[in-house]
Amino acid sequence: MPREIHAVTPGKIILIVLLLIVLVLAIYIFVPKETKTKENAPNLIHLKFDDIVQNNILFENIKIFKQNEEYYLKAQALNMTSNNLQISPVKIILSDNENKQIELISYIGNNLKGEEEKTITVKTDKNLKNIKKVDINISTQVLS
Predict the structure, then answer these.
(1) What is the chain's pLDDT, residue by residue, as a tens digit (144 residues)?
(2) What is the pTM assigned to this prediction?
(3) CB of 106 within 8 A of CB of 62?
(4) What is the pLDDT of residue 33?
(5) Closest CA to 132 of 60, 64, 72, 43
(6) Region for residue 82 given its phi and psi (left: phi exceeds 0; alpha: psi -120 to 50; beta: otherwise)
(7) SS3 label, residue 7
(8) 56-63 long-range contacts, Cβ below 8 Å, gap at least 24?
(9) pLDDT of residue 20
(10) CA angle 85, 106, 78 (to 5 degrees)
């Protein structure tokens, strides 16, 4: 008894190719796309504040940003004199619109050489997104 031969015809090949194209298009259209974000990139909150001079120390580039569910305050501290200064810890007072205050403390070392610049960074889990004003207090004394 002879067997039926099921040959692959050009019509079958075209049908299979068309089905594959439709399948790929359907997957592309209906499967949601993932939005990739950089995990270490700061979140959208990024506040900048005016420069502050306190006891011959210039605090500039004062910024608040959020990263990994924690808030950071970052600033550059520059000794504006040619003298070596003995410095106290930096007391930072942050105020919002309702005058609620948050106090942070940072350290930039015991001494700051003449015209030397250091970066201060303070990390906190307190919400800083509504901060409108930054005050900085630091005591300095000229070293002999």
Answers:
(1) 677 777 778 888 899 999 999 999 988 888 877 665 555 554 456 789 999 999 999 999 999 999 888 999 999 999 999 999 999 999 999 999 899 999 999 998 889 999 999 999 999 999 998 999 999 999 989 986
(2) 0.67
(3) no
(4) 74
(5) 64
(6) alpha
(7) coil
(8) 56/80, 56/81, 56/85, 56/140, 57/85, 57/87, 57/112, 57/138, 57/140, 59/136, 62/134
(9) 93
(10) 40
Q: What is the largest CA-CA distance in the chain?
A: 115
Could you tell me the strand order of the sheet in which 140-142 lies? 111-112, 85-87, 140-142
Q: What one-letter code names the amino acid at 16?
A: I
Q: Could you give the CA distance from residue 115 to residue 141 in angstroms, rounded to a whole number? A: 15
Q: Which residues pair with 64 in a beta bridge?
A: 47, 73
In this structure, what are the phi and psi dihedrals at residue 31, rounded to the nearest 5 degrees?
A: -85, 125
The Cα–Cα gap between 82 and 56 comes to 10
Q: Give dist(CA 114, CA 104) in Å, integer.
A: 26
Residue recorded with tokens 């050009």 = 10
Check residue 69 and give its pLDDT.
86
